[in-house]
User: Fold this.
Amino acid sequence: MTLLNPLGLLLLLTVPAIILIHLFRHERRRVEVSSLHLWRQVADRHSRRMRPRLLRNLNLLLQIAAAILASLAVAQPQLPVPQAAAPGGMVLIIDNSASMQTGAVPRLELARNRARETIGRASGATQFMLVTAGPRPRIAQTFTTDRDLLYERLREIRKTDGAAELEKAVSLAASVVGEAEAELVLITDGAVSAARLPAFPANLRTELVGGAYGEWADAANRAVTVLELRTRPDGSAIEALVGVANHAPDPTEVRLRLTADGETVSDRAIDLAAGEERLFTSVIPRTRATVYTAELVANDDALPADDRAFVVAGGERPIRVHLASTGDYFLESFLSVYPNVELTVSEQLRHPLSFDLLILDRIPAPSGLRGNVLALGTSLPDGPFAPESLVASDHVASVRQDHPLMRGVRIGETRIRQMLVGEWHPRATVVASSGEHPLLYTFQDDRLSLVGTTFALSDTDLALRTGFPVLMHNIIERLVPVAPTGELGYARPGSVVPLSVPPGEEVVVITPDGTPLRFAPRTSRLEFSRTWQTGLYEVRGESFRSHFAVNLLDTDESNLMPRMEEVRTEAGTSLVAHAPGRPVWRWLAVATLVLLVLDWALWARRY
Assistant:
């Protein structure tokens, strides 16, 4: 049996109250006595018989039964309807997006209960697979008949602050099932517009939890839906575009506050009609702040995750570049003026733990080198290239213009006097070559990110060509993904955020709820993927500190009202199932009313 509103069982607390009332109340009875002094004997006899008669009080039993039935009726129970599972099993797709964390009983918990009931109704031989449909859909459990394992995986499904990717989740489930005759069951709150719903497979069944189509129960929500910042061309100020929405049935007033590093730069009251979304512009005179915030002040609604949005200025930590070179004027000149670079130059290689990018210009490299390396005219002992000899060359003959390193670069006419040749690792990617001999290559493994050339800059006229600065910029951007100084941005929930960190240094990422996550990256690029919460993340190391922001900013996800009345499938349209079984609350309500009428009739007959 399913309870659509489990909080209705709180009415069972009236049963002890009813018993106490009957236990201590005195019934009025007409007693005729011949003398006033006999009243005391009548009172004593009534007190001694009160509790034994309590058990035989039919009114009490009727009232207790009525309270129990009324509580069950408010809880809205439904009897399960047996359903035959497909021969290939069943895939349960659980929506765990931001809207699923709302409600007196969280919608995600209702979805878990619905999934447990579906599993419990099926035969023991039926196989089930679990898929989550949050901002980054994934398979929570492959096909299995182990009920205990399935229930454990259901408990482990976490809430997220991102938008639901229903299409990707259904496509993931369908790709795993393949040609097997399996049924797909999407369990969601339906808080998604029809425009974002694709045509689902014909074997998909959709079930709603948390409310029926068009109901506003637990759905009133106000949200920040847009936050875009840009610096004026003259650098005098920052222009902010902020969107605010009122996803509620009634008009409301909200306070929108903009801050720069905690200092208020704008504070205004906004009147919003029911269902209205408006855009506002503001000018922020402070242009050197690190964190900009748009916040709905004192906004008490169903979903706090969209009440604030952050934008973080990039380039908080400079790119530490160690150039080991015997001397190259063009290379040093370029790096000295490159934005946000802290340059160290030496004629020999120092201890390689304090750099973001190591550039070896004809300097021999030690074995076991880790991190981001640009090797010019040299090789790494355990790298992808083992040089054997030095040969003469003429010019660049072949270039992969589709490669990111070649974006905006034309080096086909570059003259090269000599280059190294030798054996190559099959995992190396050749970007430019002269005949059959590679000139520019890349290599990536779990410890090393490498861009290398088989020629030295002194043996070519590349540094004199206009493509040289662009090529160097592309190389630095590939090896060290640090946002340029002044760049303003944020990430979406569930996205992967690349963090530039010193290799070999312990890094701590503190999530918005204060949870510290520790990492020991081998290279200077840390791919952080645990971005399930919206808010401001802090990144700490022994030698640096930075931030990045994760925002929902999705007006469709902030609208918590169920909007899925039907879904389009390959076979046409199908209605969304609002319940998995047969409702019985109406019969319980009628039975409660009958018991109350009987109780009244007995009471009236007695008096």
About this structure: The first strand starts at residue 2 and ends at 3. The chain has a mean pLDDT of 82.
